[in-house]
Amino acid sequence: MGQAEFYSLATESEKNAVKALMTQYPRLSKTLKELAARQLLTQREQQVKESIERKVENIEMAVRLIQDDEVRAITEYRFIKNHTRQQTLMRWNRVTDRTVDRYINAGIESVANTLKLIGQVDETCL
């Protein structure tokens, strides 16, 4: 049985939404760190903190679950460690630009499929 038989795969619009979310990851992570460092939070700040915390944890888990080691490493470098595409291409200069782009897209697709599996992604939830 293939992977698609266990659960539905992310659509293109869901993949695009996840790519946007992954692009926001560094900002979300920093915001979460700052809110966690505060002694007292307003009710709204606490709600925001919990929402961001859930998103950050889900993204990190989904990246860790990428099966291919190189795809996972490139995805983590590009999005979790917040490097530009150009920096990523320079870091993985032993393969072509197109290969790195394919790996980045494969990473986004894997993250989107994982988030969809756990019910944390659709076109409107992000």
Report on this model:
The chain is mainly alpha-helical and 126 residues long. It has one domain (9-117). Helix content is 70%, strand content 0%. It is built from five helices and no strands. The chain has helices spanning 12-37, 43-64, 69-80, 85-91, 97-117. Helix 1 packs across helix 5 and helix 3 (69-80) packs across helix 5. The two termini are 31 Å apart. The relative contact order is 0.18. The mean pLDDT is 92. This is ArpU family transcriptional regulator.
- What shape does the CA trace take? globular
Compute the separation of the termini in Å.
Answer: 31 Å
Largest sheet, described in full?
none
> What does the radius of gyration come to?
16 Å
The percentage of residues in β strands lies in under 5%
State the share of residues found in helices, binned by percent.
Answer: 55-70%
Mean pLDDT: 92
The total domain count is 1
Number of strands: 0
Order of helices and strands: HHHHH
Structural class, from secondary structure content?
Answer: mainly alpha
Task: Point out poorly predicted stretches.
Answer: none
